[in-house]
Amino acid sequence: MQSTVLFLVKLAILILLWLFIALTLRALKRDSATPSATVLAAPAVAAPQGGPDPTVAPNADGRRNQRNKAPLSELVVTNGPQRGQTIDLTSQSEVFVGRASSCTLVLSNDYASSRHARFIRNGNDWFVEDLESRNGTYLNEQRIDQLETLTRGDAIRVGRTTLHVQ
User: Fold this and answer.
1) Where are the beta strands (DSSP E) in the chain?
2) Pairing of strands 148-149, 142-143
3) Is residue 57 part of a domain?
4) Is residue 145, in this structure, part of any structural domain at all?
5) Averaged confidence pLDDT in the chain
6) Residue 128 lies in a domain
7) Per the structure, how many domains does the chain have?
8) So what's the pLDDT on residue 44?
9) Measured between alpha carbons, how far is 166 from 145 in angstroms, rounded to an integer?
10) Nearest Cα to 157, choosing from 32, 165, 47, 29?
Protein backbone atom coordinates (compact mmCIF):
# COMPACT_ATOMS: atom_id res chain seq x y z
CA MET A 1 0.00 0.00 0.00
CA GLN A 2 2.73 2.44 0.98
CA SER A 3 4.72 1.69 -2.19
CA THR A 4 1.62 2.40 -4.32
CA VAL A 5 1.08 5.79 -2.69
CA LEU A 6 4.77 6.63 -3.09
CA PHE A 7 4.62 5.65 -6.76
CA LEU A 8 1.54 7.86 -7.34
CA VAL A 9 3.23 10.83 -5.62
CA LYS A 10 6.34 10.36 -7.80
CA LEU A 11 4.15 10.16 -10.90
CA ALA A 12 2.25 13.33 -9.95
CA ILE A 13 5.51 15.23 -9.38
CA LEU A 14 6.83 14.03 -12.73
CA ILE A 15 3.65 15.15 -14.52
CA LEU A 16 3.79 18.56 -12.83
CA LEU A 17 7.45 18.93 -13.80
CA TRP A 18 6.71 18.18 -17.48
CA LEU A 19 3.74 20.54 -17.41
CA PHE A 20 5.97 23.31 -16.04
CA ILE A 21 8.59 22.67 -18.74
CA ALA A 22 5.97 22.69 -21.50
CA LEU A 23 4.45 25.98 -20.29
CA THR A 24 7.91 27.57 -19.99
CA LEU A 25 8.85 26.53 -23.52
CA ARG A 26 5.53 27.83 -24.84
CA ALA A 27 6.09 31.22 -23.19
CA LEU A 28 9.65 31.41 -24.56
CA LYS A 29 8.49 30.49 -28.04
CA ARG A 30 5.74 33.12 -27.99
CA ASP A 31 8.10 35.78 -26.65
CA SER A 32 10.91 35.16 -29.12
CA ALA A 33 9.01 34.04 -32.22
CA THR A 34 9.63 35.98 -35.41
CA PRO A 35 6.35 37.57 -36.47
CA SER A 36 4.77 36.40 -39.68
CA ALA A 37 4.73 38.77 -42.61
CA THR A 38 1.52 40.68 -43.02
CA VAL A 39 0.31 41.68 -46.46
CA LEU A 40 -1.01 45.20 -46.50
CA ALA A 41 -3.45 46.62 -48.97
CA ALA A 42 -3.58 50.38 -49.33
CA PRO A 43 -7.00 51.64 -48.23
CA ALA A 44 -9.02 53.37 -50.90
CA VAL A 45 -9.42 57.01 -49.88
CA ALA A 46 -11.23 59.50 -52.04
CA ALA A 47 -9.39 62.76 -52.70
CA PRO A 48 -10.95 65.77 -50.98
CA GLN A 49 -12.84 68.22 -53.19
CA GLY A 50 -10.86 71.50 -53.20
CA GLY A 51 -9.93 73.70 -50.27
CA PRO A 52 -7.72 72.90 -47.33
CA ASP A 53 -7.94 69.58 -45.55
CA PRO A 54 -10.54 70.03 -42.79
CA THR A 55 -9.74 69.19 -39.19
CA VAL A 56 -11.99 66.36 -38.16
CA ALA A 57 -12.91 65.64 -34.54
CA PRO A 58 -12.30 62.10 -33.28
CA ASN A 59 -15.10 59.53 -33.33
CA ALA A 60 -16.59 58.14 -30.13
CA ASP A 61 -13.92 55.41 -30.17
CA GLY A 62 -11.12 57.98 -30.40
CA ARG A 63 -10.22 57.40 -34.07
CA ARG A 64 -10.40 60.10 -36.73
CA ASN A 65 -12.44 59.92 -39.92
CA GLN A 66 -9.76 61.54 -42.04
CA ARG A 67 -6.03 61.86 -41.72
CA ASN A 68 -3.78 64.83 -42.37
CA LYS A 69 -2.13 64.62 -45.78
CA ALA A 70 1.36 65.07 -44.33
CA PRO A 71 2.99 61.68 -43.74
CA LEU A 72 3.74 60.69 -40.17
CA SER A 73 7.32 61.59 -39.30
CA GLU A 74 8.19 60.22 -35.86
CA LEU A 75 7.29 58.18 -32.81
CA VAL A 76 7.95 59.99 -29.53
CA VAL A 77 8.22 58.20 -26.19
CA THR A 78 6.08 60.31 -23.86
CA ASN A 79 5.94 58.04 -20.81
CA GLY A 80 8.34 55.45 -19.45
CA PRO A 81 12.08 55.05 -18.90
CA GLN A 82 12.94 56.14 -22.46
CA ARG A 83 10.84 59.31 -22.19
CA GLY A 84 11.90 61.89 -24.78
CA GLN A 85 13.42 59.37 -27.18
CA THR A 86 12.20 59.65 -30.79
CA ILE A 87 12.18 57.27 -33.73
CA ASP A 88 12.38 58.87 -37.18
CA LEU A 89 9.73 57.25 -39.41
CA THR A 90 10.68 59.03 -42.64
CA SER A 91 13.65 56.76 -43.31
CA GLN A 92 12.13 53.45 -42.16
CA SER A 93 9.57 51.02 -43.47
CA GLU A 94 9.28 48.87 -40.35
CA VAL A 95 9.89 49.55 -36.66
CA PHE A 96 9.97 46.91 -33.92
CA VAL A 97 9.38 47.81 -30.27
CA GLY A 98 10.27 45.49 -27.40
CA ARG A 99 12.97 44.37 -24.98
CA ALA A 100 15.12 42.50 -27.52
CA SER A 101 18.35 44.20 -28.59
CA SER A 102 17.33 43.64 -32.23
CA CYS A 103 14.33 46.00 -31.85
CA THR A 104 14.42 49.51 -33.28
CA LEU A 105 13.19 50.89 -29.95
CA VAL A 106 14.60 48.80 -27.09
CA LEU A 107 12.48 49.15 -23.94
CA SER A 108 13.65 48.60 -20.38
CA ASN A 109 10.14 47.64 -19.36
CA ASP A 110 9.23 44.43 -17.51
CA TYR A 111 5.73 44.50 -19.00
CA ALA A 112 6.95 44.49 -22.61
CA SER A 113 7.71 41.32 -24.56
CA SER A 114 10.96 40.74 -26.43
CA ARG A 115 9.28 41.75 -29.68
CA HIS A 116 6.10 43.40 -28.50
CA ALA A 117 4.77 45.50 -31.39
CA ARG A 118 5.55 46.27 -35.00
CA PHE A 119 4.95 49.49 -36.92
CA ILE A 120 4.70 49.05 -40.69
CA ARG A 121 4.66 51.61 -43.48
CA ASN A 122 2.60 51.16 -46.64
CA GLY A 123 3.05 54.21 -48.86
CA ASN A 124 2.37 57.23 -46.62
CA ASP A 125 0.27 55.19 -44.18
CA TRP A 126 1.60 53.63 -40.98
CA PHE A 127 0.07 50.66 -39.19
CA VAL A 128 0.65 49.11 -35.77
CA GLU A 129 0.40 45.41 -34.96
CA ASP A 130 0.65 43.55 -31.67
CA LEU A 131 3.04 40.60 -31.95
CA GLU A 132 1.02 38.29 -29.69
CA SER A 133 2.44 39.92 -26.58
CA ARG A 134 1.23 38.77 -23.19
CA ASN A 135 0.20 42.23 -21.94
CA GLY A 136 -1.09 43.53 -25.27
CA THR A 137 -0.58 46.68 -27.28
CA TYR A 138 -3.04 49.53 -26.80
CA LEU A 139 -3.99 52.16 -29.37
CA ASN A 140 -5.72 55.13 -27.75
CA GLU A 141 -6.36 52.97 -24.64
CA GLN A 142 -8.04 50.18 -26.65
CA ARG A 143 -6.30 46.81 -26.90
CA ILE A 144 -5.61 45.86 -30.50
CA ASP A 145 -5.76 42.37 -31.95
CA GLN A 146 -5.24 43.18 -35.62
CA LEU A 147 -3.39 45.63 -37.82
CA GLU A 148 -4.56 49.18 -37.05
CA THR A 149 -4.01 52.37 -39.05
CA LEU A 150 -2.18 55.15 -37.25
CA THR A 151 -3.01 58.84 -37.42
CA ARG A 152 -1.18 61.88 -36.10
CA GLY A 153 -1.63 62.21 -32.33
CA ASP A 154 -2.45 58.53 -31.68
CA ALA A 155 -1.15 57.11 -28.38
CA ILE A 156 0.31 53.60 -28.40
CA ARG A 157 0.95 51.88 -25.06
CA VAL A 158 3.45 49.03 -24.86
CA GLY A 159 3.67 47.77 -21.30
CA ARG A 160 4.35 50.85 -19.18
CA THR A 161 5.72 52.87 -22.11
CA THR A 162 3.55 55.27 -24.11
CA LEU A 163 4.44 56.44 -27.63
CA HIS A 164 2.77 59.23 -29.59
CA VAL A 165 2.69 59.50 -33.37
CA GLN A 166 3.75 62.90 -34.72
Assistant:
1) 74-79, 86-88, 94-98, 105-106, 117-122, 125-130, 137-139, 142-143, 148-149, 155-158, 161-165
2) unpaired
3) no
4) yes
5) 82
6) yes
7) 2
8) 43
9) 23
10) 165
